[in-house]
Design a protein that fits this description.
With about 475 residues, the protein is of the alpha/beta class. The protein folds into three domains: about 10-140 and about 200-210, Rossmann fold, CATH 3.40.50; about 230-315; about 350-470, no CATH class. Helices cover about 60% and strands about 5% of the residues. It has helices at about 15-20, 25-45, 80-95, 120-130, 145-155, 165-180, 185-195, 200-210, 210-230, 235-240, 250-275, 280-295, 305-320, 330-335, 345-355, 355-360, 365-380, 385-400, 410-420, 425-435, 445-450, 455-460, 460-470; strands at about 10-15, 50-55, 70-75, 100-105, 135-140. Helix 6 packs across helix 7 (about 185-195) and helix 19 (about 410-420) runs antiparallel to helix 20. About 25% of the residues are buried.
């Protein structure tokens, strides 16, 4: 599949490989068809555009992205024409109505009755008429293409490698006209062969498709389709291209830009609706800033500025109240909105350390505090900020569990983790604090320890293990 490029006019040659089989002549004809199509379309191409011609035997959704689709019928279609015509209709329905769909009978003529009995031909014609495709049918015989090229070269003395093009055939036609009387000359003989092949009519089809105004219509449609189908964050390239357009008059360019502006506005509204509740608020905020920079450069009026101001106000309000927050999940969502490059990052984490309420209310919520650590690490928050807060939580856990008056495995599990990590100064301090309180712990039933599973142990000290993993990777140990 070709890369999206609005100024590229794309052609697809679709053929059923089952109909071709190992038929060498048909394979060569298909290769010749692609060569002719590439050569003649490039000859007609408007200077600001490009051409791509692809061949495929697979029917996929990608076909709807091509501007012109040639569905090729080979002589084998006569064996089971209705099945092949139904396959053709599948492609036709897939192709956008604005795009061009052409049916090409290759190496036999649909218009001559002798190739098939009248009854079958009438059925096929009726099928095409019912589907309003009778004017999209063409015939092209390339079975003798190589020999015909040689003959053209001999009678025209053409020195180029590619003789089967309109310019060379026009030269052939002009030479045959010079002789008005007497037996047919060599130019007439070759010209009649060319005419019989259907190539002259095929050139007319190509020229109609490649009319300059039609090319412009195709490219304008490509711009609209590109914006419609492309992620809003990937539209920067298309905007740059759009505002450097040289091929449209002022009125049509203004209409195109207005259409693109409207489509981007719709995409932006959908983007905001889909992302404003994004759990990773900082990621959403960054995307909005990216879009703001992208669109402001091209003066596209959108609602993005208003959304960003709302977010900035929300972030500012939440940061002012960090010492009052008691909901740990809310704290994590606010953390999403904080950039590691924020100027007042030290102040923000100082406020968090002072927020004793959130620690008192959530000291036993090891899973969410683990999420807090992971979130800080993913945002490249300095480890000293993380360590200071988690240390306060562990101290609170020691106080609560050791003085609870009930049996608990936490102090013993913590002692094991601290012993394993005693090389860290943080672990030494916490061990000293634990030794002060552990004597108050009620004895734990030995059965509870013996029956303890590894996953249960890890769950008890999940947050503590994550903290020491952080320190083990070079985190700040004060």
């Amino acid at each position: 599949m070709f890369e999206k490029n609005p100024t590229c006019i794309s052609f697809a040659i679709v053929v059923n490989n089952e109909d071709i089989g190992a038929d060498v002549d048909t394979i060569k004809s298909l290769e010749s068809l692609k060569t002719i199509l590439e050569g003649e379309t490039n000859a007609c191409l408007f200077k600001y555009f490009s051409i791509i011609v692809d061949s495929t035997s697979t029917i996929t959704e990608d076909l709807k992205n091509y501007n012109v689709v040639f569905y090729v019928m080979t002589p084998r279609v006569l064996n089971n024409w209705r099945t092949e015509f139904d396959r053709m209709m599948t492609v036709h329905k897939m192709v956008d109505n604005k795009n061009h769909f052409q049916i090409l009978f290759l190496d036999f003529s649909f218009f001559r009755a002798e190739w098939v009995e009248d009854a079958k031909k009438q059925e096929m014609e009726k099928y095409l008429q019912e589907n309003k495709l009778e004017n999209s049918v063409h015939s092209l015989d390339l079975s003798n293409h190589v020999a015909l090229k040689t003959e053209i070269k001999e009678v025209t003395d053409c020195e180029v490698d590619y003789e089967f093009c309109e310019d060379t055939i026009s030269l052939l036609e002009s030479r045959k006209k010079k002789k008005k009387y007497g037996p047919r000359n060599e130019y007439e003989i070759v010209y009649e062969k060319v005419k019989a092949s259907g190539i002259l009519n095929f050139f007319i089809v190509i020229h109609d498709l490649m009319d300059e105004q039609n090319q412009k219509r195709i490219v304008v449609s490509n711009y609209v389709n590109y914006v419609t189908s492309t992620d809003i964050l990937d539209l920067g390239k298309i905007l740059k291209s759009l505002y450097n357009v040289r091929f449209l008059d002022e009125k049509r360019l203004s209409n195109l830009r207005s259409c693109i502006d409207r489509l981007i506005g719709e995409k932006l509204i959908a983007f905001i609706a889909a992302n404003k509740d994004n759990p990773n608020g900082f990621e959403y905020f960054n995307k909005l800033k990216t879009l703001q920079n992208m669109f402001s450069k091209y003066r596209i009026i959108t609602s993005i500025d208003f959304e960003i101001k709302n977010l900035e106000y929300s972030i500012e309000s939440e940061l002012k109240n960090l010492t009052e927050i008691t909901n740990l999940e809310k704290l994590i969502s606010i953390l999403d909105l904080i950039s590691p490059d924020t100027d007042n990052i030290e102040e923000i984490f100082s406020k968090l350390k002072e927020n004793n309420k959130i620690i008192e209310n959530n000291y036993n919520n090891s899973g969410l505090w683990t999420t807090f650590i992971d979130k800080c690490v993913s945002k490249n928050i300095k480890s000293n900020h993380i360590t200071a807060i988690i240390e306060k939580i562990i101290i609170k856990r020691i106080e609560q569990y050791c003085n609870s008056g009930s049996e608990t495995l936490y102090p013993y599990a913590l002692e094991t983790v601290l012993t394993e990590n005693i090389r860290f100064f943080c672990a030494k301090k916490l061990m000293m604090f634990l030794n002060k309180y552990i004597r108050n712990v009620n004895s734990v039933n030995a059965t509870s320890i013996i029956s303890l599973q590894k996953e249960d142990f890890n769950k008890i000290v999940q947050m503590e293990n994550r903290l020491f993993n952080l320190l083990d990777k070079g985190g700040y140990d004060y």
